[in-house]
Structures are given as structure tokens and as C-alpha cells.
Amino acid sequence: MTSSTRAWRRDGAVPTADLETIRAGVVTFGRQQTQGSDAADIAIALYDGDELIAGGFGRTEFQRLYVSYLWVKDEHRGQGVGGDCLRQLEAQALRRGCVDALIETLLDDAAEIYEHLGYACISHVHDFVPGFTRHTLLKVWQPRD
């Protein structure tokens, strides 16, 4: 007869490696359900010499670009650098055969910029974070069947 040593751990008592195991397990299970995942990281970075001034990354999967992060250093904002980064990610995604792109933001101004760049807002979650709306935007290059 074996004795049980089960015990719940919470918050900081759960090792970071175990959090990654949980995340990977959910992703793996989901991808097994959909079959045929072709997930691949995608990234772009702009440097001035050795200084990183802008960049973005996400993944491509199932013919879609998922933009996770898009960032521009404060002093370079408002100069079109963010739009250039997004266009660079899109160009890579198109070369990979993507037919659309998905991006999210909590900033109304960023959502407007994305709309100006051809994205359409497909959902809003008001007060996602107090005082902020979560915008989900989609850009379609080629309609899906």
C-alpha cells in the first residue's frame, strides 16, 4: 500500500519550471486537437549601431501571424518606426504563407494606428484592465475558405 503525498502549492510556491510545464502542456494538447500545427517564432528588431530601438515578435501558425509584442523606444515613437516594424513582421509572415494577422492592444491610440495600417477591430473588452479596453484587430490579406 502506497501513501499519498499530494499537496497543493500556490503562487510563489509553484516553481517557475512547473509553470512552464503547465503552459507547454496546454499548448501541446491544443495543438494535438487541431492537428497540423506549423508554429514558428517570428521576430524583427531595429538597431542603431548596437542600440536596440524597436522590435516585435510573435509566431506564425495555421497561416496566421500572431503579433505578441511590438515595442519602440520612447524617443523614437511617433516617427513611424512601429509601423515599419509591423510591416517587417507582416512581410516575413507573407513569405511563410500567412493569409491574415492578429494583434491586440490595451491602448486606444495604438488600435487607431493599427486600423490606419489596414487592421479591423474584431472585438473590444471594455475595462479589461481598469480604465483600458482590450482591442483585438485582424488584417486579412487573403480570405480563408
UniProtKB/TrEMBL annotation:
InterPro entries: Acyl_CoA_acyltransferase, GNAT_dom
Residue span, N-acetyltransferase domain: 1-143
Classification lineage: Bacteria, Pseudomonadati, Pseudomonadota, Betaproteobacteria, Burkholderiales
One Pfam family it belongs to: Acetyltransf_1
Organism of provenance: Roseateles aquatilis
UniProt-recorded name of the protein: N-acetyltransferase domain-containing protein
GO molecular function: acyltransferase activity, transferring groups other than amino-acyl groups
